[in-house]
Amino acid sequence: MTTTADLHTLTGAYALHALPDQERAEFEEHLADCAACADEVAELAAAAVRLGLAVAAPPHPAMKARVVARVPAVRQDVPRVRLPAPSRALTRRLGHWTLAACVAAAAGLAGTTVWQHTRADDAGRRESAARQRADDLAAVLSAPDVTSRHVRLADGAAGTLLVSRRRDQAAFVASGMAVPPRGKVYQLWFDDSGTMRPAGLMDSHRVTQAVLLDGSPGGASAVGITVEPAGGSVRPTSAPVALMELPV
Fold it and tell me: Which of 33, 129, 162, 213 places its Cα 20 to 30 Å from the Cα of 174?
């Protein structure tokens, strides 16, 4: 059985979905009562999104020439040395950004695989729209004026609400979200003085995700989440499972 002290070190592995079933269940039970771990999981998810959406810079033209020039002087076969397995203590000392990078890499690989197996005639249009949405999400997360608010959700889930007033856009990063009932989906809403305005749907099959909200956060005081029929609704049909004030 995992001790409480050990559970505090599992936030990164949980975000990476790398825990065995029993350990994951123990951590989720712990997550419901540990605000620090819930916030940390949400922050790791936000960091992973930033890393996963980063744009690679092209190499300097002179780099190839330098690499080719050094090839004859670089040893090709290194000695094979059997290394001891890393200790549990060393594993716990891995930085959160390293764990977040692993999350981003795993998410990117999964996304590429799905894309390769779901091509259709309109793949170009879908890819263009997805790329634009990813660019907008990355821009919100990295905006100089972005503000954020960390919140605790039902069943131990955690969320981070981010707003860029300059871009007039908002994003929501969630971790540990329970899967909605079959045929249902989580829908986001802007709360405009008591009037709920649709702001997009969440992926029902992902417990950790980042969502760019549809529409402007201007005029809204909060963001709500409800459980709606698949495809969403024009107005809420159920009580909110969460209502989060927008960060100032």
Answer: 129
- pLDDT value of position 84: 55
Average of per-residue pLDDT across 118-143: 75
Contact (Cβ atoms closer than 8 angstroms) between residue 174 and residue 159: yes
Binned at pLDDT 50, 70 and 90, residue 94 comes out as very low
The pLDDT of 79-104, averaged and rounded, is 50
Contact 201, 215 (CB under 8 A): no
Q: Would you state the structure tokens that stand for residue 167, as one six-digit string?
A: 């871009």
CA torsion, points 165, 167, 169, 174, in degrees to nearest 10?
-90
More confident residue, 97 or 175: 175
3-class SS at 184? strand
Half-sphere exposure of 17 (CA within 13 A, CB side): 12
Q: What distance in Å separates the CA atoms of residue 192 and residue 201, rounded to the nearest whole number?
A: 18
Cβ contacts of 240 within 8 Å, gap of 6 or more: 189, 224, 225, 226
Q: Which residue has the higher pLDDT, 127 or 242?
A: 242
Q: Quick one: angle between helices 35-52 and 123-141, nearest 10?
A: 130
